[in-house]
Amino acid sequence: MLVAVYNPVAGGCTAKQVFEDEVFPLLAQHKKSQLKQFSTEHAGHAGALVKELIDSLDAGVQEITVVLGSGDGTLHEIINSATTLNGGRNVKVSIVLIPCGTANALYYSVFPPGEGEGPHDRLRSLKSYLGGGTRKPITVAVTTPVSASGERNPHPLLSSVVVSTALHASILYDSESLRKEMPGIERFKVAAQQNQTRWYHATAEFTPIPGSGDVQIYDPSTKLFRTVSESATKLEGPFAYFLSTVNVDRLEVAFRITPLAVSLPPSEACLDVVVLRPLRHPDTTSESEECRKEYVNHLWGTMTGAYRGGDHVNIRYSNGEAAVEYYRCGGWKWIPAVDDERAHMICTDGYITQIERGGHASCSIGSQVDNEQFAIYA
Ligand SMILES: Nc1ncnc2c1ncn2[C@@H]1O[C@H](COP(=O)(O)OP(=O)(O)OP(=O)(O)O)[C@@H](O)[C@H]1O
């Protein structure tokens, strides 16, 4: 089954126009105009629609192709509604992605614009599909909130781009209220400034990559990953930044936060995690107001490297230590300090979930079955 779904309010509200002017005419040229078409009417609609369509398929039909005009958030809704992990049928979902959102992290990671390239072609996934191109599996990260009594939430949250806490989760949380006045990526920058002196108290624990059986860290002196000892797989806060990605090396077209996902690709599905802990900086001697203010310069000095092609991963402090701790793992557990309210926020592809006080969140790479259910035409 082939369907078209677009979110008319994603990004700069361009999806309707893009579909009418570019997507539908190209589909018609390829004799594929007989498809069901939907414009989403409310948040959550895309996920409900695709789930309904899957449920209506004849028993023998094992695949649905969705020409999707949206950002990463609407794709996130579809994945979470359709996944077998949340009771969905085991039907393969192939996405033809038309980037109509604000950040479009997945699209720009799969189709990065070349250096000095002009306006970016937003029909590359569609052209791949029409030309019989490749279905690239979408690896999922599975995040489970766990209550104070140790009860795992029965509905895990799937992500196809990012799972984060700390600064990034705060940015996504605060930027949502700025969406109307700032439809573009500038709202993320405003929210970042609002949160730049906040640190997050928590403990993070990494679990091994399933195949290799180890947790790895990037070493800028060798420009390679190495195995970390078991005792070094547990990190104490405070944290400024804690973010893991799957499928992407960037969160916006020019913000390559996990560049090694592409430049040093892993041999199997895993999570790339970028961590910044202020007290690792040689000049940061305490958690005082003064140190927090001073650390803002170090924070942005490092993070802006993501806008320079991802060179933050090679920045080193005066003591030779890497500014960024860049891990590769099979999963992680985030245990917020009970009295740090903001440390209880988890962001999964832009959606914010609160961890129960006294509880924690665990995130792991999806199983082979989970990682084979969804794919994007690339
Ligand atoms: N008709 C609608 N009215 C209001 N909200 C909608 C409607 N249709 C979808 N949504 C919601 O719009 C939100 C934003 O969509 P989406 O994430 O695709 O775009 P974006 O946030 O602009 O882009 P990105 O995620 O790439 O930054 C989603 O949370 C989705 O649930």
UniProtKB/TrEMBL annotation:
Short name of any one Pfam family annotated for the protein: DAGK_cat
Task: Extract the SUPFAM superfamilies matched here.
Answer: NAD kinase/diacylglycerol kinase-like
Biological process GO annotation list? sphingosine biosynthetic process
InterPro entries, per the entry: ATP-NAD_kinase_N (IPR017438), Diacylglycerol_kinase_cat_dom (IPR001206), Lipid_Phosphate_FormReg (IPR050187), NAD/diacylglycerol_kinase_sf (IPR016064)
Can you give the residue ranges of the DAGKc domain? 1-126
Recall the GO molecular function terms of this protein's record.
Answer: lipid kinase activity
Q: Which GO terms describe its cellular component?
A: cytoplasm; membrane
Q: What is this protein called?
A: DAGKc domain-containing protein
